[in-house]
Amino acid sequence: MEIQMPLSSEQLAELYVFTAAAAVDARENSEHAGPYGTADAGVLRGRFLEATPQSGLNAQAVISSLVENSRDGHLGTTGKDFFGWVIGGSNPVGVAADWLTSNWGQAAGLFETAPAASIIEEVAAEWLKDILHLPEQFSVGFVTGATVANIVGISAGRSEVLRKAGWDFEEQGFYGSPKINIVVGAQAHTTVFHALRFLGFGTATIVRIPTDKEGRMGVTELRSECSELEGPTIIIAQAGHVNTGAIDDIKAITAFAQTIGAWVHVDGAFGAWARASDNHRWQTDGLDQVDSFATDGHKWLQTPYDTGFVFIKNEAAHRRAMNISASYLPAQTDGTRDPSHFVPELSRRARGVPVWANIKAMGKHGIAKLIDRHCELAQIIRQDLEETPGIHIVNQVSLNQLLVRFGDNADDAHDSDAARAVLLRMKEQNKSFVGGTDWNGCWVMRISVISERIDEMSAKKLIENIKEAWSLVRSPTRS
Ligand SMILES: *Cc1c(COP(=O)(O)O)cnc(C)c1O
What is the Å distance from ligand 1's center to 234 Cα? Predict the structure, then answer.
């Protein structure tokens, strides 16, 4: 039996320097190789599949093999040409801070287990509230993403609306409890429905409010649907429809919710960041009034995966829902923040560290500018594509998202085929990455301007690539 010896400081330095060089290389390579990632499952499996290693390999060889085997198996999300899904660019300063986080090996659940990390997170939470123009009162949990942030926000709402109805959820659970009405915009993100199932609310029991053409919850419809509901109620709104980018009328929804004593949670995975910009903040009016909302770090804030935030106005409700305590886990009593008291996990990566670093690197103004620039680029893309015969932008483009339909706009099946063909061409070109989605029964191209390195040049390049793909699909003889 071999025993792995600890690395000498020379070996450690070699390992880390080697890794840093590989990281730089990966960023540069992704620019050259194209954003799609050309290695398929078979290729990747062929490289990685082997019997369980029996004895250990030397440290540098491990990393080297990781780099080598995964080549062409990464999407170019950190580059300028990535417009797929809603994916941020993993700012290098955040990445570097994240390495340190792992290197420090802190279990960032409690101040006791990770003093510096806890204070950094405490400070980052205050900065986030400032950047997002939120009142002091909100408590913040640093979670893995908006999915878990939705779970935490809704779970705090669940116990608070029951507490107001005289029921202690933490003690009694759902057995015999009053029924909670769950009211959701019909086009809520799939993770909201996931969060609800996870929390014990069956999909069939959800009241779905009809939406407008952009996917915004109808406020008139909300009022009339709720007029017959009695008892504890949670209303879930949305800031940033995953396809259109549209933001619900949060102000009106919150004003109505107050009249019936409902808890309002908002899924603001990327749209909540409109608040950081003086030009777009109005779209999120009322977000400072809600009971809870979710947003992501790894989207518009460009932190590395996985980072999201839940903001909850009632700190006591937040803490009740997330309470973890034991005698061997000493909690602070002087107001110092214990990170795990606001999230589901006890042991956790110090997510506040890359957040702190990204905010410090970009600054409040830099973040606002980035959001403005992305929204402006979305308008440039819209205007240009709209003028192209046979290309139609089917959403309003109020933020950073575009939906593009190809064809004569008469027949969904025909235009869906056209969009699929254009998307296939885009993939073959491997120059600009775009996605696709169903929009009201028609397959369309989905463009998201959210990754930090997207600039005017790469937006123009995207436009040209789309036009080229479309012209080839439209008149295949020219190909
Ligand atoms: C991305 C997204 C989510 C899910 O967030 P994760 O970061 O993937 O957990 C939820 N809602 C909306 C609107 C999103 O865009």
Answer: 19
